[in-house]
């Protein structure tokens, strides 16, 4: 492996760690495209998955028991259903159209909040059925396109929890999602010992990233935190939209 690839992986891991540790992984979508500059997207995704699993444990430790159990009980089972559907339908899905769809949803949700100057406290919680739909969509898109953040944030941003509960809850949800994803990824042959050892080599970078993210988290006001989340959601949407169009 050349130095450029190692550098790109390190940057992707550090950026994702900061995002996970401080901002519920809202900017982690850049990791796979960044690494894919020197390898196939499938290989890049396989490398990132074990690293994400490690980061999740660091993030949970940092925000231990600060999550909302009620949200967890809604989100995780629905997300697992979404992962299962993604695994069963992986062979015939159009990744391009999926990225475009999720990109448009993310951009629309963020712009609606910004243009109408809607405060998060004014957003009404989703109905139980709608909440489970977005969580299932988050699990589904996380499996097929590593883009579970936007749909999941559509749900989480309407729960009304404070910023620390938001990050802790998102961390526990995505820990479950990423560890469940190991099963279908392994069955599809995308994980092997070489990939796992390579991922483990970047554990120190992942740890530093999460610590930096948590440090930033406690130094950003709640209002600014959610403005950052909305902004990153919009940027993520643009990135997904761009990637989807580029596949045609």
Global morphology: globular
Structural class: mainly alpha
Portion in beta strands: under 5%
Give the C-alpha Rg: 17 Å
Q: Helix proportion of residues, in percent?
A: over 70%
Biggest β-sheet strands, sense, barrel: none
* Tally of DSSP helical segments: 11
| N-C termini distance | 30 Å
The total of beta strands comes to: 0
Q: What is the domain tally?
A: 1
Helix and strand element order: HHHHHHHHHHH
| Mean of pLDDT | 86
* Low-confidence regions: none
Would you give an account of this structure?
This is Probable membrane transporter protein. Its main location: membrane. It is found in: Cell membrane. The chain has 248 residues and is mainly α. It has one domain (3-246). The chain contains eleven helices and no strands. The chain has helices spanning 3-23, 31-35, 41-62, 69-88, 95-115, 128-145, 149-156, 163-187, 193-201, 203-217, 222-246. It is globular, with a radius of gyration of 17 Å. The mean pLDDT is 86.
């Amino acid at each position: 492996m050349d130095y450029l690839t190692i550098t790109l992986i390190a940057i992707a891991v550090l950026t994702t760690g900061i995002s996970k540790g401080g901002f519920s992984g809202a900017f982690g979508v850049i990791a796979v495209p960044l690494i894919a500059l020197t390898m196939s997207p499938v290989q890049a995704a396989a490398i990132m998955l074990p690293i994400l699993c490690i980061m999740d444990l660091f993030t949970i430790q940092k925000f231990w028991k600060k999550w909302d159990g009620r949200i967890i009980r809604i989100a995780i089972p629905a997300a697992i259903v979404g992962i299962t559907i993604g695994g069963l339908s992986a062979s015939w899905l159009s990744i391009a159209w999926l990225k475009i769809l999720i990109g448009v949803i993310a951009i629309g949700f963020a712009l609606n909040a910004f243009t109408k100057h809607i405060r998060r406290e004014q957003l009404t919680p989703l109905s139980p059925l709608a909440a489970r739909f977005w969580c299932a969509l988050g699990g589904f898109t996380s499996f097929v396109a590593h883009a579970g953040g936007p749909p999941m944030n559509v749900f989480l941003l309407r729960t009304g929890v404070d910023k620390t509960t938001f990050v802790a809850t998102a961390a526990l949800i995505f820990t479950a999602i990423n560890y469940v994803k190991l099963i279908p990824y392994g069955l599809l042959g995308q994980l092997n010992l070489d990939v796992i050892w390579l991922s483990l080599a970047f554990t120190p970078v992942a740890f530093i990233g999460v610590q930096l993210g948590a440090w930033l988290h406690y130094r950003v006001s709640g209002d600014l935190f959610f403005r950052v989340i909305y902004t990153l959601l919009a940027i993520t949407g643009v990135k997904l939209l761009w990637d989807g169009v580029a596949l045609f």
